[in-house]
Amino acid sequence: MPVKNEAILETEDLTREFAGFVAVNGVNLRVERGTIHALIGPNGAGKTTCFNLLTKFLSPSRGRIVFKGQDITATEPADVARLGIVRSFQISAVFPHLTVLENVRIALQRKRGGSFDFWRSSKVLDALNERAMELITDVGLAAFTNVAAAELPYGRKRALEIATTLALDPEMLLLDEPMAGMAHEDIDRISQLIKRVSANRTVLMVEHNLSVVENLCDRITVLTRGRILAEGDYATVSNNPEVREAYMGVGHA
Prior knowledge:
By secondary structure, this protein is of the alpha/beta class. It has 10 helices and 11 strands.
């Protein structure tokens, strides 16, 4: 049984400089296992840079990253994914001219560790169909199984990206602005989807939509100018005068 309030991901003095500009400055982040944790802040606060450091697309100038008690600061991106920390909407393999089912089957092959079986018999791929259909149903795409990804409405494409990420069976899912560009009905659908998939994993998300953060997230870390300004639940951070000035006063909704 996981220990209550156990940290699955922690950073110590995480810092990244670009030619003298400090994008992430001494961030000490603690994400508890089984929670939905949001990183919020105004544009330029360092949220995306922080995500790039956590998923090893950037290396820190200094500091440490610890995942499940293991120092992953020098670990390669592919190895970080294999350990169980996967970033959706960047790593996810969505091929626009393949169907929803074909996309999810390919993602399942990645989890299996074999090569892509484009040239293999249909029997090989059909063996993946049962799990693929479970994932497709989980993200609400059963009616779109044989539709090409390019033909999906925008919000449904995001659901497919989540399905291909879940095919890798991550323990921790990083979502980079999952609601960006979505209509209201899509936001509601994807919010419900994130809530469902968080039932047995940890979610860390960058999100600008504060109503989503309020309704979905257990804990919120507010970044500004590369530093942590405040942390806590939504009521705590939304009532913090510094947060209101630095973030909520800039007009994000």
